[in-house]
Design goal:
- The chain has about 100 residues and is an alpha+beta fold.
- It contains three helices and three strands, in the order ααβββα.
- A hairpin with a 2-residue loop joins strand 2 and strand 3 (about 75-80).
- The chain is elongated.
Length: about 100
C-alpha cells in the first residue's frame, strides 16, 4: 500500500512540475517564449532604437516593468518612467 501511495504522489508531483514549467508556452504558443527584462536602462537610447514599435512588459516574478524597444543589437529594456521613453512611445503612437 505504501508503494502505491508513493507512486501516486510522485506521479502527481511530476505532473505539477510539467504544468508549471510549460505555463508560458501555453500562453504564448510553442516557440514564442520571450526573455523578460530583469533590469532597465535609464540613459537616453533614442538613437539606438530601430523601427516604430515597442511592447510593454508588466512586472511579474523576476521580470521588471519595462518598455521594450528593438535595436540593431537586440532588445532594449527601458524605464517606462524615463522622459525619453515617454516621448518616444508617444511619437510612435502618433505615427
Amino acid at each position: 500500500m505504501t508503494v502505491k501511495i508513493l507512486s501516486i504522489t510522485l506521479l502527481l508531483l511530476s505532473v505539477c512540475v510539467c504544468c508549471h514549467s510549460s505555463e508560458d508556452t501555453r500562453v504564448r504558443g510553442p516557440g514564442r517564449i520571450r526573455p523578460c527584462c530583469v533590469g532597465v536602462d535609464k540613459d537616453n537610447m533614442t538613437a539606438e532604437v530601430v523601427g516604430e514599435t515597442y511592447r510593454e512588459q508588466a512586472a511579474r516574478g523576476h521580470c521588471v516593468k519595462a518598455i521594450i524597444f528593438n535595436t540593431k543589437k537586440g532588445q532594449l529594456c527601458a524605464d517606462p518612467k524615463a522622459q525619453w521613453v515617454k516621448d518616444l512611445t508617444a511619437k510612435m503612437r502618433k505615427e
